[in-house]
Write a structure and sequence with these properties.
Number of domains: 1
Structural class: alpha/beta
Largest sheet: 5 strands, parallel
Radius of gyration: 15 Å
Helix content: 40-55%
Number of strands: 5
CATH topology: Rossmann fold
Strand content: 5-15%
CATH class: Alpha Beta
Length: 180
């Protein structure tokens, strides 16, 4: 089962993914940090804002590779957790009022079994070298993420603000309840 953990920048997604991995679950890491780093090495201060389509194309390609790997390996893992999914690329472009119609069309064929969204949470939000958005931007991105996932997935849950362990338990319990 392909399970996406998505949501606002700085909302705790990677911490949740790391905790799931520590519990023995198969997880895919976020790809944007390496693309942001590559952009910085090419001289971009904010690769996403300066070249949103080029940035998003690199992200899309990497996330498509993860999607395909997770699909091919479904028989090996009960759950494959992905730190963001293909839909994030479209949502981020929507945030900038840009369209990528061919990607949006592909979202109908590239769905995830379950989606968990982590909303903006100012108490844990921090900027770093790869997280360039401020908290107001993180808040503004969230409705775009929520809208795009809900448009293509019936099974979308918002993960409450809580400890990492409580969030992991919420996700795992929700998955178990849905399977029963």
């Amino acid at each position: 089962m392909k399970v996406v953990i998505s949501g606002s920048p700085g909302s705790g997604k990677t911490s949740v993914i790391n905790a799931l991995r520590e519990k023995g679950h198969h997880c895919y890491d976020e790809v944007s940090r390496s693309v942001i780093q590559w952009g910085a090495e090419q001289g971009y201060k904010n690769y996403f804002l300066e070249a949103p389509v080029a940035f998003s194309e690199k992200i899309w390609t990497a996330r498509m590779e993860q999607y395909n790997q997770a699909t091919q390996q479904q028989h090996l893992h009960r759950y494959s957790f992905l730190d963001r999914g293909l839909h994030d690329s479209v949502a981020y472009l929507h945030y900038l009022n840009q369209q990528h119609d061919s990607w949006e069309a592909q979202l109908q064929q590239h769905t995830y079994d379950k989606v968990f969204l982590l909303p903006p949470w100012e108490a844990i939000y921090t900027k770093d070298q790869q997280r360039l958005e401020d908290f107001s931007t993180a808040k503004a991105l969230y409705p775009h993420l929520s809208t795009i996932y809900k448009k293509y997935h019936a099974a979308v849950w918002e993960v409450p603000a809580d400890t990492v362990q409580a969030r992991v338990e919420f996700i795992l319990q929700t998955l178990e309840n849905e399977q029963s």
